[in-house]
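Kindly inspect this chain:
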Amino acid sequence: MNEHVAKQTGELFDKAAKQFDPDDPTSPMAKQRRELQGQQEALTATMTQNHKELADKFEQLTTAVKVAGAANDAASAIAKVTPIKGDTYASSIHRGMQQIAVGLGDEYTDTGSVTGVIPRCKKGDGLLTVNGGDAHVVLEMTDSVRPAWNDYLDEAERNREATASLGLVRELSQNSGQSIRVLGSRRIVMVFDPAQDDAGLLRTVV
């Protein structure tokens, strides 16, 4: 009986060891390791692709900023000869944002002539509704210098119940000589001329 028990015990241990042997291709442990390895490889491939796409976007953004800086003198000269009023500038931004919103699967609304939640206040020229309403980005456009952007965007956000804001101007001189200024974690002011700049720059910042 002792020999029989010892034999059965040995066989049981051998079977259990085989079940957990990762080098045995028929064992559940080996199968699980192959599945985990496959999932890890798929995750790594996805992360690599996402990082590449993000790097490409930043490269495009950097290039666009350099081009915008180099073309500033020409843009200023054209502006002096053929000035564009604020409503025309805003209208061109609205058209571009409509297309960007469609591409992102979001919704964009021209709110420049509509009073917001603050009585008699129309601040906030456009509103991007993200992911069906999970977040809102308010856009404010001007074709002139605005010295206190933070205060203005703060009121525009409150007026449109937005979680972030984007200010847009047509020339570097209207943005303290900077192509892009980041004001805190959720506000950006950037130079963008729809007649000259690539819409991909605006889409990337949005």
Remarks:
- Helices lie at 2-19, 28-70, 72-81, 86-104, 149-160, 199-205.
- The two ends are 78 Å apart (CA to CA).
- Confidence is low (pLDDT under 50) at residues 74-87.
